[in-house]
Amino acid sequence: MSSRSDPTLYRETRGSGEPVVLLHGWGMNLRIFDGLRDALAVEHQVIAIDLPGHGRSGWQAHASAQHQLDWLAASLPRAATLVGWSLGGQLALQLAAQTDLALRRLVLIASSPRFVTGDDWPHGLPAATLQRFAEQLAVDPDRTVADFLELQVRGSVAAPAMLLRLQRALRDHGNARPDALQAGLALLQHNDLRALARAIRLPVLVIAGQYDRVTQPQASQALVQLLADARLLLVRRAGHAPFLSHAQEVAARLLDFIRPGAQRFAVRAAPGRR
Fold it and tell me: CA dist 102 to 51, 86, 202, Å?
């Protein structure tokens, strides 16, 4: 286990076989993936990582976003399937561009190449919403994270139980450092990875929650259109964390997608249907 000041990333590994790496979202830690990790570890070596400054990982103060990304890349095995949730999905897209990692596949859960709306991108949160989060974060990080957790479960089946799962992960495994939260929120405010997504040639499974209030399902649809080899799984009655609310369904689809030759079984669905 690393101390909060060590320049090391905390990880937990389960199972054997082809490696699968799990990257969590803003403000969270690897504990949120316990159920998904166990389900995937039946067939694979599953590596869950605390992002820099989150959970039990160290933090490199004053390091650039690119340096933090390179630090994360250095901790990954080669020829892995990379699973990224929310902000972790944006990091996964950027890591996929590093050809030396030789990634096999990407799974992007409730993620978007651009979290903020724009004239040519209506599928995000208003810039003013993230700016309010940034201003509140500077004053009260705990309240900001708590508000974001509540936003993540809105629209999901079993929302109260989902919220408890998110809160328990932070209580049991550790909160993110305030400066890491600030850095991650800045990425969400400013990243526009649409051009990068167009250049990705890996097989990609995009998983969306039908009632996600953070990443609209329309953003996932648009992301699928940007990627060269992608399919969409829309999870009915799910919010921002479908791997928690619909654990068995998501794990089964992921295993299908990761098995060699089985990518064709992933489901493409239209967000407008019920």
Answer: 21, 22, 10
Give pLDDT, residue 262: 58
Residue 139: CB atoms within 10 A of its CB come to 8
Q: Identity (one letter) of the amino acid at 7?
A: P
Measure the CA–CA gap between 245 and 218, rounded to whole angstroms: 20
Name residues whose C-beta falls within 8 Å of residue 232's C-beta, 6 or more positions apart in sequence: 206, 207, 208, 220, 221, 224, 267, 268, 269
How far apart CA 114 and CA 87 sit, in angstroms, is 10
- φ/ψ of residue 38, rounded to 5: -65, -40
DSSP letter for each residue of 73-123: HHTSPSS-EEEEETHHHHHHHHHHT-GGG---EEEEES--S-SB-BTTB-S
**pTM of this structure:** 0.93
Q: Which of 43, 42, 45, 50 is nearest to 68 (CA)?
A: 50
- Count CB-CB contacts under 10 A for residue 201: 9
Mind telling me the catalytic residues?
86, 212, 240
Q: Pick out the chain residues at pLDDT < 50.
A: 1-6, 263-274
The confidence score (pLDDT) of residue 267 equals 45
Q: What is the DSSP string of 188-213?
A: HHH---HHHHHH--S-EEEEEETT-S
- Token representation of residue 140: 């009260």
Structure confidence by residue, pLDDT tens digits, 45-92: 999 999 999 999 999 988 999 999 999 999 999 999 999 999 999 999
**Closest alpha carbon to 121 in 214, 192, 26, 59:** 192
What tens digit of pLDDT does each residue of 146-158 get? 999 999 999 999 9
Give pLDDT, residue 121: 97
